[in-house]
Amino acid sequence: MPVTSVVSDPEALTITAVGDYPVPVARLWQAWMDPRQLEQFWGPPSWPATFTAHEAREGGLAQYQMSGPQGETSRGYWRFETIEPERRIVVWDGFADADGAPSADLPETRMEIAFEATGKGSRFTAVSTFQSLAALEQMVAMGMVEGLSAALAQLDDVVAELRAWSASMHAALTVVDDTHIVVRRTVRGSLAQVWRAHHEPELIKRWMLGPDGWSMPVCEVAVEVGQTYRYEWENAADGGRFGFTGELLEAEAPRRAVVTEGMIGMDGPPAVNELLLVPQPGNRTLIELRITYPSREVRDLVIGTGMVDGMEISYARLEQAVLAA
User: Fold this and answer.
1) Of 26, 16, 207, 191, which Cα lies nearest the Cα of 113?
2) Which of 125, 164, 181, 221 is the most exposed place for a label (fewest CB within 10 A)?
3) What is the per-residue pLDDT across 170-187, written as a single tens digit (0 to 9) for each?
4) CA–CA gap between residue 149 and residue 3 (Å, rounded)
5) How far apart are CA 164 and CA 24, in angstroms?
6) First-to-last CA distance in the chain?
7) Structurally, what CATH architecture does the domain formed by 3-161 represent?
């Protein structure tokens, strides 16, 4: 069982959970930071969780609701105190009333989740610290140790699903909700190679072309936060053109970049694209593109263009024309 222990320590006023998994730290980190993955294991099987908000930044707030087998509900929240990517998360974890306000009857705990690489993959250690012995005893009496054990046992299935995604060699679309989708594709190449292929114009123009017959006459890359980019494609058969432009919002080379994306010549709010690159065994890299659309209608319109098929053609070209060169 990957959850190796869940232990209460009355002297230290803590409950500590430890889990080991055969995946890189980056993938385990994402399971805790992505609300759609998090809600698959934050809550026992009989009390599944749904996150209604998840502002993962220092000072941000996450809110969730757990639903019981008889229709009961229990609400909770996380207040993010510290986020150190792929190393540590510190939150204040508490219960909430029907209006989302902190409960006056149940204690708030400080939970620190540390991530580390191991010889076989990665480990998390989650330490919940209580403000008094009475608060710890109250939560133990309510079944927190058993509930946490049952909840975290589900993380194994989440991680196994992540392994399946990373083993896939075709672009795969996941529709998360009305405005969010995720596209994943594993390619043969190192993290540094794949990052360069996404950020050097001469490389981008060799693979990011979609179906055959298109070229990329305009490839202006944003390399610093606040800069804008502009990509334009041209069809060799009829000279038709289209393109996108946007701003680089966040950059954490060589693993993550966030940009806005709007079609040139069209009005309306842009989409937000988050690119995540995760190293995999065997000199492979998982490309994960998370897209937030302004509406469900825009989401459906874009998916309906055959976007994922075009991305798969591009990713195959990336492997053959750039990474294998």
Assistant:
1) 16
2) 164
3) 788 888 888 999 898 888
4) 7
5) 14
6) 42
7) 2-Layer Sandwich (3.30)
Helix (H, G, I), strand (E, B) or coil at 191: helix
Enumerate the domain spans of the chain.
Answer: 3-161, 168-323
State which fold the 168-323 domain adopts.
Alpha-D-Glucose-1,6-Bisphosphate; Chain A, domain 4 (3.30.530)
Please name which of 205, 253, 194, 204 lies closest in space to residue 225, comparing C-alpha atoms.
253
- Asked if domains 3-161 and 168-323 share a fold, the reply is yes
Q: Are 257 and 275 in contact (CB under 8 A)?
A: yes
pLDDT tens profile 179-232: 999 898 888 899 999 999 999 999 999 999 999 899 999 999 999 999 999 999
List the Cα angle 246/251/255 in 5-degree steps: 120
For residue 209, the tally of other CB atoms under 10 A from its CB is: 19
Residue closest to 25 by CA, chosen among 180, 282, 255, 289: 255
Is the entire prediction scored with pTM above 0.70? no
